[in-house]
């Protein structure tokens, strides 16, 4: 079974680049414009709506990354397998990420840095 990754970013170019890069290394990647696209299915026991890793932007319309991470962790998703990405980190965002214990990446970030984190998470799975 392939390692499944969800990528959320309202910027199409960013989510497509992350998705294409990770697919080159054999990961099964699903890209979404907003967490609202799948939020109602987070508790559904259906393999289509399960992921091993979540990479999410913070600032998005409909549902921001903070709200999404809260929902994920409330549903039992491992905080160690969540990464938040942003080019606009505020003190509030950083404090939230530190408190929850998710991985943070600053835009622009290196794809190899993201890949190394994904590989680490896969080894610990």
TrEMBL record:
Q: Name one GO biological process term.
A: phosphorelay signal transduction system
Residues modified as 4-aspartylphosphate are 57
The Response regulatory domain covers: 4-122
Which keywords does this chain's UniProt record carry? Phosphoprotein
- The protein depicted here goes by the name Two component system response regulator
Q: Which InterPro entries match?
A: Bact_response_regulator, CheY-like_superfamily, Sig_transdc_resp-reg_receiver
**What superkingdom heads the lineage?**
Bacteria
The record's SMART domains line, in alphabetical order, gives: REC
Q: Where are the transmembrane segments?
A: none
């Amino acid at each position: 079974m392939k390692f499944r990754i969800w990528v959320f970013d309202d910027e199409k170019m960013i989510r497509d680049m992350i998705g294409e890069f990770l697919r080159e290394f054999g990961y099964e990647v699903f890209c979404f414009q907003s967490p609202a696209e799948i939020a109602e299915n987070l508790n559904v026991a259906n393999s289509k709506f399960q992921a091993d890793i979540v990479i999410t932007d913070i600032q998005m319309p409909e549902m921001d990354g903070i709200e999404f991470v809260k929902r994920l962790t409330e549903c039992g998703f491992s905080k160690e397998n969540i990464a938040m990405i942003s080019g606009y980190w505020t003190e509030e965002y950083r404090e939230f990420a530190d408190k929850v214990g998710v991985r943070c990446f600053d835009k622009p970030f290196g794809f190899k840095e993201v890949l190394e984190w994904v590989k680490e998470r896969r080894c610990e799975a």
